[in-house]
Amino acid sequence: MSKEYSSKEIAIYNAVVGLFEEGADLNNLTVAEITGKAGIGKGTAYAYFSDKEEMIAKALFYNSKTFCKQLYKGMCKEKDLYAKINYVLLKMEQQIPKADCIFRFINMISDNSTISKRIKDILRGEVSSAKMSAVNIVKGVLEGEFKNRETPSEDKMEYLVLSIYSKLLCYAMFLKEDKYKQETERSTMRGLICDGICREVRAI
Fold first, then answer.
1. DSSP state for residue 51 in the 8-state scheme
2. CB 167 within 8 A of CB 193
3. Residue ranges of E strands in 58-190
4. First-last CA distance in the chain
5. What sign has the CA pseudo-torsion 75, 76, 77, 82?
6. Which of 24, 32, 123, 156 could bridge across to 152 with cysteines, CB 3.0–4.6 Å?
């Protein structure tokens, strides 16, 4: 059963992400700044969260999970593998303005500070109970591709998941480069990635 979020929790989550997109340093972010952005009192926030780190970790996880669910729902409406991959890539392009935020967050939790350790501990607990993750989206991309042919071994399926996931991750990194601000460059790379994944799946 999926968790129901209160309007105040969602306000906190949106406030954290909004502040991060504005350039806030999560290490120095205060509860007062978060609740001020959310438009709720500090006392109210502490009824839902134990501390700032929990607010930050759960906000980032909530927004990631929401995006993944929306992505999966839209992708499932596409007719074939090429179209599904293309849909995912296009949606990733729409997230370009948030790309810097994502990489700043990754850099932040890569250190060994107290706040980073606390956030990673919270995220581990959240991720372990997730129903829809980025890897599950990749698995969803492959659904239906082997209905009329022999299903690959478990090792081969895991390889395909890792291969597709790595390509999507690399594309997200490429989107930070100036050349990919041009639609023609993105369109060419999208086509190459879609063709490459389709060939790889057919070859398994």
1. S
2. yes
3. none
4. 35
5. positive
6. 156
